[in-house]
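Lab notes, practical 5.
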Amino acid sequence: MIVTLSVEQLERFYKKLDQKGKGGGTTFVQAAAPTPPDPVATANAQGAANKEAAIASQELSMVNQVSPYGNLSFDQTRTSAEGTPQYTATSTLTPSSQRQLDLTNQAGEKFGETANAQLNQVSGQLSEPVNYASLGQAPTADLSTLGQAPTANFNNLGAAPVANEQTRQTVRQAIQDREQPFQDRRLDQLTTRLDTQGIAEGSKAYSRAMDDFNRGVNDFNLGADRDALGQMQGLYGLEADQRGRATNEIGQQFDFSNQARDRGLRDIEAQYALDANTRDRGINELIAQRQIPLNELASMLSGSQVQGPSFLNTPSQSIQAGDIQGATYANYTGAQNAYNQQMNRQQQANSSAKGGMGNMIGSLAMAGGTAY
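Output from the prediction step:
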């Protein structure tokens, strides 16, 4: 919608705007944005602070000490090209400790002179390799006197006994052959009696009589089988017992022979241990003769040293430099946040002013303007 205002209305409108700006309204002045800190300058300032803190910490830790054996002092002797002070730690012995050190140095010189003189004497001996020829041959364990190791020989026993089926059959046949005449005679007697009684062959009575006879013969054969089996088992038991006795005797003989060999082996081992121990003693004596001069030289060259004074471990002090970088960037961050908040408030005020102007134009239009 377009609003047309008269000249008077426009003058009153601008007059009200001017009064609103000068009167109860709010006038905003835009502030300049904060300048970011220089990182190089900030880092240099932090480095200088760190250096000063390190120098102060070092100076606090350098404590002069005085003890019954000597003194320890720190003195600034020079300054580096960068301006850092440099110190020298000086240890001073008491007169008694200094005299002991001088005597020890003198003794060390005499030890060295004596060692050099003795070294000339033993140099010829040391140039020769260690010779074990005087000890003879190294001992060995001679097992030739033991002979062959014993073995258990079962070849003379022959084959091991077995349960022989042929023996059972032979015994069974012998029993049957001995009984056969008696069975034949009883069969003749049975047939004669049946014939005399008029019992014909093929009748039931005849069949029952023959079944009874055959059953007796069968029972006898079964008994013969049992007897034959028992005799076969008995024979096998005798043969097995005989072989077991022979086997035990061979085993006992093997044990005796083995024990005798073990005793002979222990005797050889004991003799070898004695011979080896004797040779080791001889080798140790040769090595001792060669090492004693070297040990004497080492002892004279080392000598005894005077212990220096012991000083206290003073507490190490540390001074922390101020956080210049952190404080600088924290201050910049706070200023930037305040600037951002001010800009936000100004934008909100401008938006409110635009809304009031629109309301005023609407009021003027209602007062007499023409809208089309």
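Observations recorded by the TA: The first strand starts at residue 3 and ends at 4. The mean pLDDT is 77.
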